[in-house]
Amino acid sequence: MALPPLPAFPTGFTFGVATSAYQVEGAADTGGRGPSIWDTFTHEPGQIADGSTGDVACDHYHRYPEDVALMAGLGTDAYRFSVAWPRVQPDGTGPANPTGLAFYDRLVDTVLAAGIDPVATLFHWDLPQALEDRGGWMDRDTAYRFADYSALVAAALGDRIKLWVTLNEPVVHMTYGYAMGVHAPGRMMLFDAFPTTHHQLLGHGLAVAAVRAHSGSPVALTNNYSPVHACGDTAADRAAVAAYDALHNRLFTDPVLGLGYPTEIDFDLSVVHDGDLDVIATPIDGIGVNYYNPTGIRAPDEGHPLPFEMVQLDGYPTTGFGWPVVPEGLRDILVTLTRRYGDALPPLYVTESGCSYPDMVGPDGDCADPDRIAYLDGHLRAVRAAIDEGADVRGYFVWSLLDNFEWAEGFSQRFGLVHVDFDTQVRTPKTSYAWYRDAIRQARR
Ligand code: GBH
C-alpha cells in the first residue's frame, strides 16, 4: 500500500492488540470453568446470527503459544486480554479455582517472555450464570462479588499485569444485555435497566481498591464512546443529542470523575446509597476509549420509547458491519473528553479500534484486506492529531488480533489482523498484519 509514512508518536506510546475471553478462548467446559451468561445465551436458538457459540471459538485456551508468537511477530508492545470470571470462580463466589487461574498464569508468563506487556480486563461481559440467576447486575450484591473476584485475580497476577481495566464498555453491556436484550443475558428492560449501570459502576469502584491492594500498576475503566452528529437543528433535536450524549458518553464517565450522574435523563436513583458516589469516584489512572463510529441523532417521533432517534449517517464508506468509517470521530472524542473533563481526566488509552470486513481468502490462501489497512492508518493519524491538540493518549490497541466470536453476529463478522479458519483453526496473517508491524516501526522512530 502506498500510504505516506505515519507521523512519529511520543516515546513510550503503547501499540497493542486486543481480544476478550469469551470471543477467543473456547474450552468452555475445560479446567472447571463454570457457565457464563454467554454460554446460556448462545445455546438458546435464534440469538446468534449464524447459530454459532463460543464453545471453541479460536481455541486460544490451548493455542495461546501460537497466538503470542503472532503478537511477537507484529512487534506489538502490549496484549489486552480479558479474564473469564467463571474460570476463576465457576459459580461467581468463593475461593479461586486453581486450574482457571493457572491458565492466566501461563498466558501472562508467555506474553512477558515474548517481551510484550500483559493488559488485563477483569470483566468483558461473561458474568457467571450463577450470579445472573441471583439477579445479575440488577442485584447490588454482584458489585461486591466483582470486587472479591478482582482481588483473587490481582493477588495471582498483580506482580505482572502492566495495566488493569476493570469493566469493558459497561454502557454496551447495560443497553444491549439488559435494556434491549440483543446480548446476554437477553433482558429487555429499557430504562428499568438503570440499576445495572449503578451496580457496574459500584463494582468498578470497589474493584479499583481491590486491585490496588495487590498491584502497583495503573487501573482504568474502558468505555465505548461515540461522538454525536446532530441530524436536525431544532431545539428538540438538540435535546435529543444531549440525551444521547449523556446516556452513551457521560453516564459511565461523569460519576467516575466525581461529577455524579448526568441529569439530562430522568433515572430512578433509588438504588444509589449514601457513599456510593464516593466509591464510584475512587481516583483511577486511565480511561480506556473504545471507538468504532459516530452516531447520528435526531428528535424522536411521537410515541418513540427513547428520548432520541438514531439516524444512519450518510456520505461515509462503511465496514462489513455497515458502520460508517469516520477516523475524524476518534480525534473528536479524544479532544472532547480532554476539554470536557480538564484536570479531572486521567490519561487516555484507545483500548479498542478496528473494523470488520468479509472473509477475503485468495486462491493461494492469502488474505488481502486493504480496507482494514486504510481504516487503521486513518485512526492512528487521528490519535496523533488528538495528541497534537493536547489529548494525553498513551496507547492504541487494535481490535482484534484474531478473527473471533463476534457476539450476536457469531463468526459472520471478522475483525482480525489474522484470519482464522474456524474449521481447522489455521491462522493466516492478513496484509493488515504486515502493515501494522511496519506502522509500529515507523511510528516509533
Ligand atoms: C466492542 O463493542 C466490544 O468491546 C468487542 O467485544 C467487540 O467485539 C467489538 O467492539 C466489535 O463489535 O448503531 O451501526 O452505529 C463495540 C460496541 C456497539 C460499537 C454498536 C458500534 C454502533 C453501531 N459497538 N456500535 S451503529
UniProtKB/TrEMBL annotation:
One Pfam family from the record: Glyco_hydro_1
PROSITE patterns: GLYCOSYL_HYDROL_F1_2 (PS00653)
Family: Belongs to the glycosyl hydrolase 1 family.
Cross-referenced InterPro entries: GH, GH_1_N_CS, Glyco_hydro_1, Glyco_hydro_1_beta-glucosidase
UniProt keyword annotations, A-Z: Carbohydrate metabolism, Cellulose degradation, Glycosidase, Hydrolase, Polysaccharide degradation
Catalysed reactions, as listed in the record: Hydrolysis of terminal, non-reducing beta-D-glucosyl residues with release of beta-D-glucose
Name of the protein in question: Beta-glucosidase
EC number: 3.2.1.21
GO MF terms, alphabetically ordered: beta-glucosidase activity
